[in-house]
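In response to a reviewer's request, we include the raw inputs and outputs for one of the modeled complexes. The three entities were modeled together in a single run.
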Amino acid sequence: MASSREIGKERSLGGRAHFLRHLGENWAIYRKNPMGMGGLGLLVLFGLMALASFIPPLLDPMYHPMSGVDPEIDTSVGPSARHLLGTDFMGRDILSQLLTGARVALLIGVSAAFMAVAIGTMVGMVAGYFGGIVDTLLMRLADIVMVLPGLLVILILSSVAGQLSIWNLVLIIALLKWAGVSRIIRSQTLSLKVRPYVEAARVAGASHTRIMFRHMLPNVLPLSFLYMTFGVTSAILIEASLSFLGFGDPSTVSWGMMLQWVWKTGHMFKAPYWLLPPGICISLITLAFYLIGRAMDEVLNPRLRKEVLEQ
Amino acid sequence: MNLRKFLLVRSGQIVVTFWIILTLLFVLFRLAPSDPLSVVADSLMSEEEIQILKAQFGLDEPLHRQYLLYLWNFIRGEFGISFHYRQPVVEILGDRLPKTALLFTTATILYALAGISLGKILAWYRGSLLDSGMSFLGLLTHTFFLPWLALLLVWVFGYKLGWFPLSGMISPEIWLDPESGFLAKFLDVLHHMALPMGVLFLTHFGGYMLVMRTTMLETLREDYILTARAKGLPEKVIRNRHAAPNASLPVVTSLGLSLAFSINGGALTETIFSWPGLGRELVASVAHGDYPLAQAAFLFIAAFVLVANLVVDVIYAYLDPRIRY
Amino acid sequence: MNVLEVKDLTVQYLTSRGRVHAVEGISWELRQAEALGIVGESGCGKTTVAMAIMGLLPSNAQVVEGKILLEGRDLLLLDAEEMRTIRWKRIAMVFQAAMNALNPVHRVGDQILEAMMAHDGELSEKEAQRRLEELCAMVGLDPRRMKDYPHQFSGGMRQRAVIAMALACNPTMLIADEPTTALDVMVADQILGQLRRLQLEMGLAILYISHDISVIARSCDRMGVMYAGQMVELGDTDEILDRPLHPYTRGLMRSYPKLRGPKTKLEPIPGEPPNLMDPPPGCRFCPRCPDKGASCPTERPPWIQAKEGHWVLCHKGEV
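The model returned the following structure tokens for the whole complex.
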């Protein structure tokens, strides 16, 4: 007769192998989803753009997105062989700026979302697992954070703190966005708390941390991952909005900043080659993550999948 | 559990939440700048003014006294003097608030109702060309970056076609002319409101439409819809009287949850169109370093959001008898 | 004339995985002021029959063959609009108490009034209210509760409300689909008693559908047994309960506990019902039948009247 400790161990190992096996299955399902693959394709495109952003300045210093000076051009002109998307009001290459924007967007988006989800998952699990006053306090905090309009909070913070650098921004976004995730994770934790293998682990004498990290976390991760895709869009949009309003990090170029320049320098009516690309990129990256998120939702939520079959 | 008690509880929660926000703001503004005086007075003020403000905000007093004074000032509506406008902050914001309310509330009502009606119809005609087409359109506009869409609309409809003014809320010529009647002024405001509302509408209706469509499809699978069919009721009645009221409930909830997001959009819109509202004032005051105005604008907006949340809750309670009884 | 006659009804569902033979060639009739019960396990097709009668089959269902005659008129030939006028006015349905049969956002009274108004545009408000009170009296509900919402009603009260709603237009017949599932035993008994009274007092014909044979035994004059989409036995309730002819019916009897009489061992029927996407060519019960004959696996059994008014679907039908 296996001891309860052994049973607990077996179950916990089962938990991890379970999760990995599921990953393979889930990917197979995801692959069949046209929306998901489309979104992924777009994401890959932006990833390539981000990587390619390092190339133009290496080709010729005049292609540098911020300090590039073209000896022959010092105003905004349309696309040509020299500058595939034209130049901005200072003669800087727009394509180069666009590629850098992709890098900045992905960097900020993924970092902020990752941090937000990490915080949110921890808070959600702790709240759900311990319940009682811890739960109440944490969720009330989440409520207050959720009610605040993020963009405006960051604005007021920057009025006091001065210019925000990219990493400051990532941190602040994470501190504002964890709340939504935490609620979902908390619900999930509540339902996981009563599963047999958790009870078994508790009986076997596992500590709270062990139960949370070894047993619950693998089952909560898919949800966290899903919310990360929503979070990336959110973060990118906040950065873009901030930069658009003129509060972005001046040491780098982002799509929002490009839009700010085209607006503030009075070129919006005259330079579609400058106005359109950044906006299209922001919209497409939003679309990409939306599609990925929807596809992942279907993968994780079998109910949605079943409907497609039984039409 | 009836409506009055519900309202009371929710109002209480709002007061507490607001008080916490108020306190956090106090901490923020007293903590960060090196000289607390710079928060309420700038170098252009006279010595007299500075003394008055110092007293009003208790800057020579210990911190906890300052805090109480701060709360008391808030209740009195005393927010100091704007550096930029050289006017009492409360006057400025008092002027801006109704304008934000006008734009924001009208836009929200329009896109929420449109989203709900369209979503209802799409679910009914599921799988049709209308469904695919509109769903796609809704998704597309939903992903547009709001400032960018605004710039595009201004370019096409304001600049190229000249149908709408490029910015502002009123045309001074009409309003200054003593002979302009009420109708002329009213239409003028509407004319100016068109593009900003268009932007807000386009970027928001898609979300509601898609959510309503989903909830309608789920509602149509409910047993009471089968009952309604069995009762021999006409399809239109089933859709509008039985399915839609139930399907609207989650949509109203999501309206409440996305208020923070919409306010962001509202602030961006006001800024781009120079619509004289709270959002634009907040952005401008932060850019100018006008601390008193920035703080107060933020508080006003926060209060606005909280009240809006309450309104949505009330609407939900009204629509769902399970809350009221 | 019989209130309802079903002749050779065959219904199939088209799914992405194949065609489901849900109901196959069933024939029975519901007489005036009679209570007929259809009993069978889940998946046997009894709900499909009810939906077919009401014209509420889902879009992927196909009535391949058969007639459903309501007082001589074939319902399957009617178009959607005509069917809509018949529904509730002539045939009404009482749904399961477990179901969310009442719309949560409308008052109970309003939903009953709606049923009335839908079929009688000229009904005055006063008359409608009077009828509502009448209905409440019939089912044992306090008329003052009509202003409440469904969530404020208990399970038993909801079921009564659903019955009242069904009676609103004075229908010729009632279909009661699992009327007592999800109700506790005492309430269930009251509800069944109420329905029986209504049947006798109003001369209402009621079709009961249930998986619970005790419901059928208590409430029905005649009963039919369905298995795997076919009707395997039909006749007088007492007759069938005392002397079941079909091996499935016999198996059912053996697997039900009896309150009185000597204690007998409960015997479940071995095996499982057939896959209706690919039903066996011969008798569908054959694989589980303890009494197989030579022709059973391959030849469809005949529907024969073994005794007066007692029909059975079996090769060994002649007693």
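As requested, we also summarize the result in words. Chain C touches chain A at residues 15-16 (CB under 8 Å). The radius of gyration of chain C is 20 Å.
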